[in-house]
UniProtKB/TrEMBL annotation:
Enzyme class name: hydrolase
Gene3D superfamilies with a match to the protein in the record: DD-peptidase/beta-lactamase superfamily (3.40.710.10), Glycoside hydrolase family 3 C-terminal domain (3.40.50.1700), Glycoside hydrolase, family 3, N-terminal domain (3.20.20.300)
Species per Swiss-Prot/TrEMBL record: Solitalea koreensis
Protein name: beta-N-acetylhexosaminidase
Gene Ontology MF term list: beta-N-acetylhexosaminidase activity
Swiss-Prot/TrEMBL keywords: Glycosidase, Hydrolase, Signal
Keyword Hydrolase: yes
Reactions the enzyme catalyzes: Hydrolysis of terminal non-reducing N-acetyl-D-hexosamine residues in N-acetyl-beta-D-hexosaminides
GO biological-process terms attached to the record: carbohydrate metabolic process; peptidoglycan turnover
Residue span(s) of domain Beta-lactamase-related: 604-948
EC numbers on record: 3.2.1.52
Transmembrane regions: none
Length: 981
């Protein structure tokens, strides 16, 4: 036997890598009739083979792409010298496996059929690939078409990897909670559901050009033994086996499954000898092939498993498997010996050469159907990108989203609705503090988070219990849950005791990321959210379900104890923002790449040191990225939850929201005068200005008064005191009453220009602040906080953020050389607002992008969010339409696109923004635009005034409207694609 040196192998790999420039062959649907039908290529190849080569085609060896060259050399020798029919890849990585596949194929006379256990996709065996849900998770999904789409996508990825057969779906029925091996690999307990989903999964695979090999015939579900370790016995009578365990396989056969794997199971109902089904002529040839009329490929489970290999020589095992009726002998421990034993059996007439030929013809026919008669190597270029496409990621997300299950939702606790009267904490048990479950919860409400090790001591859990006193809702995430009942699903006694004690102390929302069977420990808890698997995606979506970011649709796939039955599950509707992917709203991620380049161009050209861009559509945040740094010294990277000075966006996010509420409840009349509500104005010519004219900048007011220029030494102090209580900046405090005694009178006395003519003025919102505060009897910041921000669950939006948030979360603005003589950080940039103590109707509000989006989504929803109504739809419509398009583009408080479409290309919005769009820009480099026609919200936050407010590159480069237009371009492209499809 010729051996191969390590040097030769390495040289082959290098050459193959350099030659990868051919495209993958086109895929076609695989059918069982193709496998059972002869063709010229099959006959011609068979006729060139010796007996040994024909026998070799029956064998499939297990290969690993993460092992050394000695392993590669052994596989190569089996391929080259023993002419084996296929390779089943186990663990490794995609690029390494692709290289090996190409190499092994180059050594084969007849192209190899490559296979893999890929029940939940490539990630079952390979790193750096898409981790699709387990079948138990899929069992909770009610939209069965998602299962077909999954099969189709897995097929695409397998073919991209040069893989032709997947040992899936698992068609076993999970009717034994103590099963140590099937468990989460089964769709569930109901035979019809298992059959239905198995068929759809199979059809997706085969429509995608991959042979689906259903397993483990005749049914591995009802056992408490693992066939990897021992031989399980299924002690059911024939009637039960036929009506339950065989049901999915019968459906699969009827609908055209191309391959079936026979399990290492003793089934006395079919073979009283105790012979494993994989070696049983009665279970295999008689039952599967004759009685059930299966014409596809029959595959053994791995012959290296102890359930079949104990006490039998590997060469004898291969012969027994052939005699039972199997076409493909999988993972034999000694292939040369197996070939020799089968040949001996031919020579002694125990096996006919015609029988061998028939099985080899089936294998060759399968290879022909797979296109292996025109084999082409795997293209290595863009391999990882092709395996991890945005569409695949979105499908994965949709699968998990549809699987999340809620039950025992007593009193409709979920989704959590009213937030302003709740003090909420959340704990992850068995996970770190920084995880997507806790982090996502914090996007919806002020949630205090904790984490505890699963096996922490009683004293640690008791300390946590004490810390949680005073919280009226505690959300628990149970992580690191095992699959085995023998160790109580790896849940510690201390954790179970803690959860029970906590449930007696306060309201608990319980989420489990793992095996639903573990819930037998917690039948006293309500509500319960099942996330099924413990990964970033499942954690995030379970958190979104708790607050209503997504609706819940899943149903339990199995019975859990006596209180929770299969098919149970509470359905909920979304009531808050969802955090999703562009593909979830029909947009291709690649079509948004220009946002990144435009945003980075602004940083490169020093229009701003950093920015955050967020875009939402149909209630889904689908784009959210941070670029650059807080300042040009590049010390602190920008984050998506950083807090920015909104500047004039305050006008719509604070003052206008409050005015809408007051108009709606009849406290303010837009057609009444300013003096009606502010007695101090009655001695001035401003008294007769109509409220609606203030809201539309048609009052004839002076645009801006630079109050800071007139400050005298007596007006401020470096230290805070009773006489100087109003903070402007670090070591800068204004004297008490300065606004009331100096600023407001000066504004009231300012020269009035032409009433009715549009001229933008900050004074209008100073005045509206006075109206609001006089009517409500509350400071502006308190009114909007209690009326809007707290009930909405906003955690960053508000005035004077340094009183509420860590300073490192707040993005600095200007390095002020002319007034405050310092870097303005955590205090409002606007000089006039700063002199009022940071709270003004025109400026002073701070927020991150998420909170601003939530507020605008409430407006877009017609005043409703989180199951609570804040404003009426007709109020929003009144304020957000053009007030008088013949005078200006303004609504009431809100800015809008230019009325003239020609001017819109040079305006503050995208040229394609609809006439319904409303929003505002901010001097510091911010904007938000809401388009009801497309259900679109666009937020851009930057600190373009750092380090100088004279830097107007953001405006001159048109960055904000350019990015806005990218979104519309992507929408148009998506709509065009949808029409063409």
């Amino acid at each position: 036997m010729k051996t191969i040196s390590i040097r030769q192998l390495r040289t082959c790999f290098i050459v193959l890598f350099l030659l990868q420039s051919v495209n993958s062959y086109a895929q076609q649907r695989i059918t069982v009739s193709q496998i059972s039908s002869a063709n010229k290529w099959t006959d011609s190849v068979l006729n060139t083979m010796s007996v040994d080569q024909r026998i070799g085609q029956l064998f499939v060896v297990t290969a690993y792409s993460n092992r050394d060259y000695n392993h590669v050399r052994q596989i190569t020798e089996l391929v080259r010298d023993y002419k084996i029919g296929g390779v089943m890849f186990a663990s490794g990585g995609p690029v390494r496996q692709a290289l090996l596949t190409n190499y092994f194929q180059s050594q084969a006379n007849v192209p190899l059929m490559i296979s893999m256990d890929a029940e939940w996709g490539l990630s079952m065996r390979l790193d750096s690939t898409m981790n699709f849900p387990r079948e138990s998770t899929l069992g909770a999904i009610q939209d069965d078409q998602l299962i077909y789409k999954l099969g189709l996508e897995i097929a695409r990825q397998l073919r991209r990897m040069g893989i032709h057969m997947s040992f899936s779906p698992d068609a076993d029925i999970n009717n034994n909670p103590w099963n140590p091996v099937i468990n989460e690999r089964s769709f569930g307990q109901d035979k019809r559901m298992v059959a239905r989903k198995s068929v759809l999964y199979m059809q997706g695979l085969q429509d995608g050009g991959v042979i689906a090999c259903a397993k483990h015939f005749p049914g591995h579900g009802d056992t408490d033994q693992d066939s990897h370790q021992t031989l399980p016995i299924i002690n059911k009578n024939k009637a039960l086996m036929d009506s339950v365990e065989l049901f999915p396989f019968k459906e699969l056969i009827t609908t055209g499954v191309t391959a079936i794997m026979v399990g290492h199971l003793a089934v006395p109902a079919y073979d009283a000898s105790g012979m494993p089904a994989s070696l049983s002529y009665l279970a295999n040839s008689s039952l599967l092939q004759r009685q059930l009329n299966f014409k596809g490929l029959v595959v053994t489970d791995a012959l290296s498993m102890k359930g079949v290999s104990t006490g039998i020589a590997p060469s004898d095992l291969a012969l027994k498997a052939f005699l039972a009726g199997n076409d493909i002998l999988l993972s034999s421990d000694y292939i040369p010996g197996g070939i020799a034993e089968i040949k001996k059996a031919i020579n002694r007439k125990q096996i006919s050469i015609e029988d061998v030929n028939l099985r080899v013809k089936k294998i060759l026919a399968a290879k022909f159907a797979l296109g292996l008669n025109h084999y082409k190597p795997i293209v290595l270029k863009n391999l990882l990108t092709d395996l991890n496409t945005p569409d695949a990621k979105n499908l994965n997300r949709e699968l998990v989203k549809n699987a999340i299950t809620l039950f025992r939702n007593t009193n409709d606790v979920l989704p959590i609705k009213k937030l302003d009267n709740q003090k909420i904490a959340a704990i992850s048990i068995g996970s770190e503090l920084d995880n997507s479950f806790l982090n996502t919860l914090k996007r919806y409400a002020p949630v205090k988070t904790f984490a505890m090790r699963m096996w922490a001591e009683t004293k640690d859990f008791d300390s946590l219990l004490n810390n949680l006193r005073g919280y009226n809702t505690v959300i628990i995430g149970l992580h690191d849950v095992g699959t085995s009942s023998t160790d109580n699903y790896s849940i510690s006694e201390t954790a179970r005791t803690f959860i029970y004690k906590l449930s007696q102390q306060t309201k608990v929302v319980f989420s489990v990321f793992g095996n639903p069977y573990c819930l037998t420990n917690f039948d006293y808890l309500s509500p319960v959210v099942i996330g099924f698997e413990d990964n970033t995606l499942n954690r995030s979506l379970a958190a979104q379900a708790i607050f209503g970011g997504i609706g819940v649709k899943g149903k339990l796939p199995v019975d859990v104890g006596v209180s929770c039955k299969k098919g149970e599950g509470v359905t909920t509707q979304p009531i808050r923002l969802e955090y999703a992917l562009p593909e979830s709203v029909g947009i291709h991620s690649a079509d948004l790449s220009r946002i990144d380049s435009i945003a980075m161009d602004g940083i490169t050209k020093k229009a701003y040191p950093g920015c955050v861009v967020l875009v939402a559509k149909d209630g889904k945040v689908f784009y959210e990225k941070a670029f650059g740094y807080h300042t040009f010294d590049r010390l602190q990277p920008e984050k998506t939850d950083d807090v920015f000075d909104l500047a004039s966006v305050t006008k719509i996010a604070a003052t206008t929201q409050g005015v809408m509420k007051l108009v709606e409840n009849g406290s303010v009349d837009l057609n009444k005068t300013f003096g009606t509500y502010v007695p101090k104005a009655r001695n001035y010519d401003k008294s007769n200005i109509l409220i609606k004219d203030l809201m539309t900048h048609q009052a004839g007011l002076t645009p801006y008064i630079p109050f800071y220029r007139y400050i005298s030494a007596a007006d401020w102090s470096a230290d805070s005191s009773a006489a100087f209580p109003t903070r402007v900046a670090e070591h800068y405090y204004m004297r008490k009453g300065y606004f009331e005694k100096v600023m407001l009178p000066e504004m009231l006395a300012s020269k009035l220009k032409t009433p009715g003519k549009y001229e933008y003025s900050d004074l209008s919102m100073y005045f509206m602040q006075q109206v609001l505060e006089n009517v409500t009897g509350q400071p502006l910041e308190n009114y909007v906080m209690n009326t809007f921000y707290k009930p909405l669950g906003l955690t960053t939006m508000g005035y004077n953020p340094r009183n509420r948030l860590p300073l490192n979360r707040i993005v600095p603005t200007e390095d002020d050389k002319y007034f405050r003589k310092q870097l303005v950080h955590g205090d409002v940039h606007d000089q006039g607002a700063a002199m009022t103590g940071g709270v003004a109707g025109h400026a002073g509000l701070f927020s991150d992008a998420n909170d601003l989006t939530v507020l605008m989504q409430m407006d877009l929803n017609g005043g409703e969010y989180g199951g609570q109504r804040y404003l009426r739809p007709e109020t929003l419509e009144k304020f957000t339409v053009y007030n008088d398009p013949f005078v200006s583009r303004r609504g009431l408080g809100f800015d809008k696109p230019e009325v003239d479409l020609k001017e819109r290309s040079f305006g503050a919005t995208a040229k394609d923004a609809s006439d319904e769009t409303f929003g505002h820009t901010g001097f510091t480099g911010t904007c938000v635009w809401v388009d009801p026609k497309t259900n679109l919200i666009y937020v851009f936050l930057s600190n373009r005034v750092n380090s100088s407010s004279e830097n107007n590159k953001l405006g001159s480069m048109g960055i904000r409207p350019k990015i806005h237009q990218v979104v519309y371009d992507a929408l148009k492209k998506a709509e065009g694609s949808a029409v063409s499809n």
